[in-house]
Write a structure and sequence with these properties.
mainly beta; Immunoglobulin-like; 7 strands; elongated; 4-stranded antiparallel β-sheet; about 140 residues; 3-stranded antiparallel β-sheet
């Protein structure tokens, strides 16, 4: 089963419709995402270099996959580090949240797996057995 009907052209920004509108705010950081499809799985790749894998939170609730990265705040008893003075700052490792609406009838929610390697968070979203492509049924001619 496909998520897209290839017979009708879709607008270029069609998949942005499924993102949470809060994550589309102009001043919020949104890491780039690739979504790949194979015969039995979807793979979501989220570009997030320079992060610590323990600070990712991936949750699925009521049809929404939410990926959050939060930098922990220093403990009150820790020595407060002095903030550096930037002479030039071209990037910032900001916290983020991305949300995606998933069809429970297509995705096997219990089988979702996440790995973080080389700055890319990869989520394997296996398809349910019912959503896998089936070979054409042969009908005998009598």
């Amino acid at each position: 089963m496909k998520l897209i009907n290839h017979n009708r052209p879709l607008p270029a920004n069609f998949f942005r419709f499924f993102d949470d509108h809060v994550t589309q705010a102009a001043d919020s950081y949104r890491p780039a995402v690739n979504i790949l499809e194979t015969e039995d799985t979807f793979t979501l790749e989220l570009l997030a270099p320079g992060r610590v894998k323990d600070n990712f939170n991936v949750a699925f609730n009521e049809g929404t996959l939410e990926i959050t990265y939060t930098t922990p705040t220093p403990e009150a008893n820790d020595a407060t580090p002095v903030a550096p003075t930037f002479r030039r700052q071209e990037f910032k490792l900001a916290d983020f949240t991305r949300r995606f609406q998933l069809d429970d009838s297509v995705i096997d929610v219990e089988g979702i797996d996440a790995t973080y390697q080389d700055g890319v968070l990869r989520l394997a979203l296996p398809k349910r057995e019912e959503a896998l492509p089936k070979p054409p049924r042969q009908i005998a001619v009598a």
